[in-house]
């Protein structure tokens, strides 16, 4: 049965989509079956993995959560690029799929949901839990229904930070949501912290990293070092391990994927990770 990971952070621009795409790609390279669930109206993960908005207008995460459309009718294969006789052609990846996002999702918090508004994703994923090893949910940079649905559905979370005080401040608000989920829905959300765009010789970067280590302890994942390869990979619409495999961010995501897979095989998500106390 799939382990569901919510990749969350209240502040925008911290690296949630970058982490979703590249951690998913690295787990897939380790022979895991992967489903990406894009819950961000900006659809960064969707675009990065080769899916265009014109392909998703009638079948995206909005239709799963608001229209109760079966998830099997929404899942798409992600798109890669291959070289054939000197030409670049598009192809699909087996066992690396996505539930795409669309700008329609921005209306979700204003929409009326008569029943189970915060359990829609959890219920919607049930038919495909046995089809994947990991389901990674790319949360929006907000504390609305998209993030709450992902956390309620999650076996554990990765809370993504960047080297800024704003990122730490934003965590205090997200932490309250995690506590509320425990209190209202009786669901603990163990979580890793992950610092993205880390520069080793920058004072502020190391101060933020130290704060995360103090807060999350052993559940603080090794940071993702800053590199131009991330921007290049996004523009190419390919994961780092397919286009810039030797770059420092690619190597960091690969190391983190191995660590998460090892923890999952040992069943350590709930025993070894930091649980936000209510």
List the helices and strands and how they pair.
Blueprint: E1 3-8, H1 16-29, E2 34-38, H2 44-48, H3 61-65, E3 76-84, E4 87-99, H4 120-125, E5 134-138, H5 145-153, E6 156-161, H6 165-185, E7 190-195, H7 203-216, H8 229-236, H9 240-243, H10 248-266, H11 269-272, E8 274-275
Parallel strand pairs: 1-5, 1-6, 2-4, 2-5, 6-7
Antiparallel strand pairs: 3-4, 7-8
Helix pairs in contact: 1-10
Structure, described:
- With 278 residues, this protein is α/β, with parallel strands linked by helices.
- It has a single domain (3-275), classed as Rossmann fold (3-Layer(aba) Sandwich).
- The chain contains 11 helices and 8 strands.
- Strands 3-4-2-5-1-6-7-8 form an 8-stranded mixed β-sheet, sandwiched between helices.
- Strand 6 (156-161), helix 6 and strand 7 (190-195) form a beta-alpha-beta unit.
- Helix 1 (16-29) crosses helix 10.
- It is globular, with a radius of gyration of 18 Å.
- It starts with a strand and ends with a strand.
- Residues 269-278 have low confidence and may be disordered.
Specify the CATH architecture: 3-Layer(aba) Sandwich
Give the percentage of residues in beta strands.
15-25%
CATH class: Alpha Beta
Compressed to H and E, one letter per element, the order equals EHEHHEEHEHEHEHHHHHE
Topology, number of strands: 8
| SS content category | alpha/beta
The domain tally reads: 1
Short description:
This protein is 39% helix and 19% strand. It contains eleven helices and eight strands. The longest helix is centred in the middle third of the chain and has 21 residues.
């Amino acid at each position: 049965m799939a382990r569901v990971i919510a990749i969350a952070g209240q502040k925008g621009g911290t690296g949630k989509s970058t982490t979703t795409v590249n951690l998913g790609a690295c787990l897939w390279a380790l022979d895991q079956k992967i489903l990406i669930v894009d819950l961000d109206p900006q659809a960064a993960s969707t675009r990065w993995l080769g899916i265009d908005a014109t392909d998703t207008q009638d079948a995206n995460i909005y239709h799963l959560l608001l229209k109760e459309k079966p998830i099997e009718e929404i899942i798409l294969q992600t798109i890669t690029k291959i070289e054939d006789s000197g030409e670049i052609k598009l192809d699909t990846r087996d066992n690396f799929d996505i539930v795409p996002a669309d700008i329609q999702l921005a209306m979700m918090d204003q929409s009326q949901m008569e029943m189970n508004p915060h359990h829609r994703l959890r219920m919607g994923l049930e038919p495909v839990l046995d089809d994947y090893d990991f389901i990674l949910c790319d949360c929006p940079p907000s504390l609305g229904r998209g993030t709450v649905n992902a956390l309620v559905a999650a076996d554990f979370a990765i809370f993504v930070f960047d080297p800024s005080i704003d990122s730490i401040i934003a965590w205090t608000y997200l932490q309250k949501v995690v506590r509320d989920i425990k209190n209202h829905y009786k669901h603990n959300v163990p979580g890793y912290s992950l610092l993205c765009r880390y520069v080793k010789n920058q004072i502020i970067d190391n101060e933020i990293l130290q704060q995360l280590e103090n807060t999350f302890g052993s559940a603080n994942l090794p940071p993702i070092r800053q590199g131009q390869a991330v921007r290049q990979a996004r523009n190419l619409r390919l994961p780092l391990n397919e286009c810039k495999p030797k770059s420092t961010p690619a190597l960091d995501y690969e190391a983190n994927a191995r660590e998460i897979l090892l923890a999952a095989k040992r069943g350590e998500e709930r025993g070894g990770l930091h649980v936000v106390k209510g």
